[in-house]
Design goal:
GO terms for molecular function: UDP-glucose 4-epimerase activity. It catalyses: UDP-alpha-D-glucose = UDP-alpha-D-galactose. The protein has 283 residues and is α/β, with parallel strands linked by helices. It has a single domain, classed as Rossmann fold (3-Layer(aba) Sandwich). Helices cover 41% and strands 15% of the residues. The protein is built from nine helices and eleven strands. Helix 4 links the parallel strand 2 and strand 3.
């Protein structure tokens, strides 16, 4: 693997995890592995709990058994559920409305207990909508099957699929479609490095939102993709999708204060980098 050694396995396999931790003896870990698609979580909740809860508990247990005391955890704004205020800060009630959000919420609670009673220190990063690609085109989104809005719309613009489906056009938003806070993966990467440095310098357990603080509707997103690509593509509207929140926008002031982190990339940057990646990649 280009950026370091790769060990293949399954986080549900505790024995395999123990082997890897024994081999490398890390001082800290970043835990990203999970099932993430909200709609699929309503169809396969058992699989989501087995992986996101059972697998994550394996990771935490194996890591702590190997002497790891610092963890950066990939969490989600889906732990908040329906917004009581916009933007949402970290004190917002956590009332997830889908199995995906609930599995991440459960692990956040486990991490807090392990921090309080077992010596673990962790930064729980609640992502809003991660998007974009490396500007040099070295790496980008590639899901099978693809379920994320920006790759789906770009594939439609490239003629690789018949069109793009918008789920719900009757939300109480400025144009009737859902509002999301899109954050570039390079901004996320920067936050993870800062979170790791924070922990290695003795930082205590904390939860932090990672978003730009700016909301974009689905229609606005599609317009941005058409503008960057210079292409129109078919759009159809369908019923609301189970488990989708109306509006998810971050208040990121706590991350700015704790990590000294500020997002650098705009929605246009996100779309341009994604367009560059997908237009040069044959799926």
């Amino acid at each position: 693997m280009k950026w370091g050694p790769l060990e293949q396995g399954d986080i549900r396999d505790r024995q395999r995890l123990d082997e890897v931790f024994k081999k490398y003896r890390p001082d800290a870990i970043m835990h990203f592995a999970a099932l993430i698609e909200v709609g699929q979580s309503t169809k396969d909740p058992v699989g989501f709990y087995e992986t996101n809860v059972g697998g994550s508990l394996n990771v935490l247990s194996a890591a702590m058994g190997a002497g790891v005391e610092a963890l950066v955890f990939s969490s989600t704004c889906a732990t908040y559920g329906l917004p009581h205020q916009v933007p949402m800060d970290e004190t917002h009630e956590q009332e997830p409305i889908n199995p995906y959000g609930r599995t991440k919420f459960v692990i956040e609670q486990a991490i807090k207990d392990f921090s309080a009673y077992a010596g673990l220190r962790a930064v729980m990063l609640r992502y809003f909508n991660a998007a974009g690609a490396d500007f040099q085109g070295r790496i980008g989104e590639w899901h099978t099957p693809e379920t994320h809005a920006i790759p789906l719309a770009i594939e439609a613009a490239l003629g690789r699929r018949q069109g793009f489906t918008v789920f719900g056009s009757d939300y109480e938003t400025r144009d009737g479609t859902c509002v999301r806070d899109y954050i570039h993966v390079l901004d996320l990467a920067d936050a993870h490095i800062r979170a790791l440095e924070y922990l290695l310098n003795g930082g205590e357990t904390v939860e932090l939102n990672l978003g730009t603080g700016t909301g974009t509707t689905v229609k606005e997103l599609l317009a941005a993709i058409s503008e960057v690509s210079g292409r129109a593509f078919p759009v159809e509207y369908a019923e609301r999708r189970e488990g989708d929140s109306t509006t998810l926008v971050a208040d990121n002031h706590k991350a700015q204060t704790v990590l000294g982190w500020t997002p650098q990339y705009s929605l246009n940057d996100i779309v341009r980098s994604a367009w560059n990646w997908h237009s040069k990649t044959n799926r």
